[in-house]
């Protein structure tokens, strides 16, 4: 499993691991001893990966997973302790601000990534891990995964993930979950809209992930990128001008290589040339 050119020249912190199988990149959170709690190094490494692949059309999807049976238990308490010392030395709270905002930049980067982002949710999905799940395009969970926004119970706030949680599940549910800080399982995560599919065991999880990857491979690479960007724009732009621009993008797609290839493949009852699956 050789990494693409955009990644092979990079040096990444060992808090993450990368595996590439053709057009599918798996990014493993790799701090199992802390249930993959996010250190500053991990945050920066994730940013580095998504920056490197931003314009890499050979990578169709990024699978986010956690080593050791957990997705992510939130922020690293050890980093917080170190920041406390830095804040005392600096005589201000700026080290806390910088750390927290760095995480916000990362989660926004994942949210806006042109690739399809799939989150595989097992074990702890808490705090920042919950936020990361909320910016995935497809979220698949084990039934016994443990979700939650525990920040208020720790005397802190879900500062950077709050907007993404609200966009994912709506203000009413976000208020309840954040203000109570309750833990809940995969089935409840499905009901409130955090995840899209729930399975009972590892075998079913692997099978559903494989099926999802096959579906991703059937979609046209450039059309998928443009579609994801268009969907994001619907939340922030005036409708009339957005639809005008979308019509132009549609025309470009129909007259482009993918549009012509997709049409011919349909007529000829064959897979399009971008499909590299079985």
Describe the structure.
This protein is of the alpha/beta class. It folds into two domains: 5-217, Alpha-Beta Complex (2-enoyl-CoA Hydratase, Chain A, domain 1), CATH 3.90.226.10; 220-267. It contains twelve helices and nine strands. It has a six-stranded mixed beta sheet, sandwiched between helices. Strand 1 (16-21) and strand 2 form a beta hairpin. Helix 2 (40-53) runs parallel beside helix 4. The longest helix has 19 residues, at 94-112. It starts with a helix and ends in an 11-residue tail after the last helix. 33% of the residues are buried. Keywords: Isomerase. One of its GO terms (molecular function) is isomerase activity. Belongs to the enoyl-CoA hydratase/isomerase family. This is Enoyl-CoA hydratase/isomerase family protein. InterPro entries: ClpP/crotonase-like_dom_sf, Enoyl-CoA_hydra/iso, Enoyl-CoA_hydra_C, Enoyl-CoA_Hydratase/Isomerase.
What distinguishing features does this structure have?
2-enoyl-CoA Hydratase, Chain A, domain 1; 6-stranded mixed sheet; 3-stranded mixed sheet; 9 strands; Enoyl-CoA_hydra/iso; Enoyl-CoA_Hydratase/Isomerase; 278 residues; 12 helices; alpha/beta
Q: Brief overview, please?
A:
The protein is an alpha/beta fold. It has helices spanning 5-8, 40-53, 77-90, 94-112, 128-134, 162-169, 171-180, 186-192, 202-218, 221-233, 239-255, 257-267, and strands at 16-21, 24-29, 61-66, 116-121, 124-126, 138-142, 146-148, 183-184, 197-199. It is 51% helix and 14% strand.
